Amino acid sequence: KKINDLKKGFPQDINMLMIATLNEAGFDAHAVRLSTKSHGKLHPSYAMKSSFNKTVCHVKNGEEEYLLDASNKSLPFNTLNKNCLNGKGMLVTDGNFKWVDLNPTKKSKKMSTGNFVIDDEGYLSGKLNVSRSGYNGIEFRSQHAKDIVDYKKQYAENKTSWYIDNHKVEGLTHSDKAVKEVLEFESDGFVESTGDLIIFSPLVIGRISENPFKSSERHYPVNYGAPIEELESFRIMVPSGFKPEELPSKLAIGLPDNGGSFIFNVQYMNGVILVSSRLVINKTEFPVEYYLSLREFYAQIVEKHAEQIVLKREIG
Length: 316
What we know:
Layout: H1 2-6, H2 11-24, E1 28-34, E2 54-61, E3 64-68, E4 87-93, E5 96-102, E6 108-118, E7 124-134, H3 135-144, H4 148-158, E8 162-170, E9 179-187, E10 191-193, E11 197-200, E12 222-223, E13 228-237, E14 242-246, E15 251-254, E16 260-269, E17 272-281, E18 285-286, H5 291-305, E19 309-313
Parallel strand pairs: 6-13
Antiparallel strand pairs: 1-2, 1-4, 2-3, 4-5, 6-7, 7-9, 8-9, 10-11, 11-19, 12-18, 13-17, 14-19, 15-16, 16-17
C-alpha cells in the first residue's frame, strides 16, 4: 500500500507489487530471484541468500511463460535488462523452487541508412537515418530519453566537422517500438580532396576502428548478452567528372558453428557508390576456445572498415 500511495519504491518492491497484482487478476505469477552480471555469476549447486540481488516476475498465461521487470519502464513486455541475463534464476513458488533460464527475447539491432552527395570541392551533404530496436533501443532510451536535448548537443560537439541542419529523434516513449533518428547535415571534413583525387571512407558512420579483443589470450567466456545485428547501407553520389580509381574489395566471413557473420560490399553504378556493411552475432556467449576466432574475426572487420575509396577526375 505504501508503494502504491507514494508511486515509487525499490525495484524489488515494485516487482513484488506487480506479482501480487497479477495473482489478484487471476494469473499464475511468482518471484524469480537472480544475480545480475555486475553482482557475479550464480552457481545453482551452492547458491546462498547473498548470491541473489534482484527480483523479477515470472507469469504463466496458459502454456506461455514470461519474465517481466516493472522497475524499468524502458523495457518492452517479456524483456529483462541485459544485466539480468546471467544464466539462471530461481523461480520461487509456494513451498518449492526451480531454476529457469534467463535468455534474451530480442536482438540488439541497429540499422543506419543514408543518401549523400559529394561535390567537386569535397563537401559531403545528405540525410542519415538510424533505427535502433531491441536492446539497442532499450539502452538508448535508458541513457537519453530524460534529456534528449543534451544528447543532441553532445552529438553535435563530437561531430566537429558536421554542420547539422536538422536532428530529430522519435519513439522514445514507446518501449515496444524502434527509436528512429534522422539527421540532415553537411561536412567539410569527411573527404580529402587534392584537386584530381578525392579520398574518403565509405562508412559515414558505423565504422569499427578498434578490435574489442586486444589481449592475445582469454580465460573467461565472451558474453554479449543478446544477439547483435548492425547494418550500414549508404548511397553516395560522386561529383560529375570523377570515377572510382580504387574501391574496397568485397569481404564475407563467418564465425565457427554459425556464431556470426560479416559481409562488406562497395559497388559503383552510374555515378553512385553503394555501400553495405552487415555484422551479425548469433550467439550470446562464446566459450574460451572460440576467443582467437573472435579476435581474428574483428581484426578483419577493422581492416576492411579502414579501407578507403579513391575517386579520380576523368581527363577530357
